[in-house]
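Table S2 (text version). Query chain:
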Amino acid sequence: MKKLPKIGLLYLDFVLQFFNKSNFKGWPDKIEKVTYHWKNDKKRFIEEVKRKKIEVLVGNIPATAYETFVEIAKELPNVRFVPSIETQFSNKSKENVTLFCKKFDLAIPKTKIFYNQEKGYKYLKEKATYPQIIKRSYGPSNYGGYFVHKANDYKEAKKLLDDKKYNPIYTQNAIDLKDSGDIRVMLIGHKPICAFWRYSGKNQWITNTSQGGSMSYENVPMNALELAVKASKAAKAEYWACDIAICAKTGKAYILECATAFAAFPYIRDWICQYLMWDFSNGRFNKPHIPLFSWEELGKIDSNLLRTMRYIGFSKYTASYDGEYFFKDKQDIYEMELALLSNESDVPEKSDENCITLEECQEFKTIQENKINFNSATLTDLMSLHGMEEDLALQIQEYLQENIITDSSDLLELEAIDEQMLKSWDKNIDDMRIDINSANKDTLRKIKGIGKKLSKIIHEYKEKNGNFKCIEDLKNIEGIGKNKFAQLKSRLKIGE
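Corresponding structure-token output:
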């Protein structure tokens, strides 16, 4: 009997675990765990994978770590990544989803991507047809639709982009949605195993359930399933999910999103692992059989009960008359199959000047470099930094409630941030020194090294002597010696 491969589960700091050992029910051997930390951890991570003799590493890679894991995979040529690095290409960004769909001729709404803001605004003003759907491009997830916007005219589009400062500008023609909803399809081994309509809530156009949307498992059209299967096979994905729009006028299906990174019900994670065990074991474990349209039956189960159900499995058998509809695949047109191994040629090339990857954009002089000041940065701004995750961005915003950051090193007070991470942000960080002449007592108090007492003294000095002519005037204040001055000099400035 062929030896079973050594499985490792890939985890990352600040990222929710998609799989755990309990999902691999029945796997006889020890399943290892390996965590990547945001601390220039590549070398240690590689050594740990080798030391634990992991042969198959299972887990999704967040957008911010994608390039790092491309490098890691090259240094671990004997380790199979599941999903593969190439399969996870679409996880990284909306640009990558667009490139993927174009390469494999998958229907998507008309999409334009501009790294040159002037060109983007010109397109939106002179050529775009409205409404336009404008998205934050970077990252696979829009966090419940909160970074997806509808602009009904150029004025709305410009105001939105001026405010959000999305770079690049990623804009799509809006699809006239059938029944004001879209469809999420989840697949295992290229077989649809769950699909449901998502309908927008009252006075909403976004279909995300987190924003008041509702779900229905009934009457999912076959062309949505066909498109999802085509995308899954193109990605060579062991598991996959697509968000699909059906045009109300033509009935045509379009991909809105697709990736291996998606929210899945607990029983679906179990099904995925049943499939992976069949794959890894060369048939030692049975391939799960999940009937097509079984979601129609699951949709009838109370949601509270459904959340507690684990290890639901289906196996083929001769159904009774009343169960025949449910347990027999409609038309027997889909069957779960082994996903082919991917290779580097599966990764799309850039398609045109308006549709380029994040790495390629650095080669163009027309790119607008957005410098970030932590004190005024939005959550969207913070999420654009290398290695940034939403939890960490929220920690930074919480820190700013009581502090003013005048130097990025101030963030070292947060446990999750180290000097290597700060170094990777250097080129994206703006001058954050505070103008001593315009700062009030409350502002000065929040600057590291000043505090309540010294801020009062500095304020009183300004009231008596007028504005500072130069930073060196701080030396005239009693209590500010050589060392204190050196500290404050890097945090304060004289305004222009």
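Notes on Table S2: Residues 85-259+338-368 form a domain with the D-amino Acid Aminotransferase; Chain A, domain 1 fold (CATH 3.30.470.20). DSSP finds 16 helices and 15 strands in the chain.
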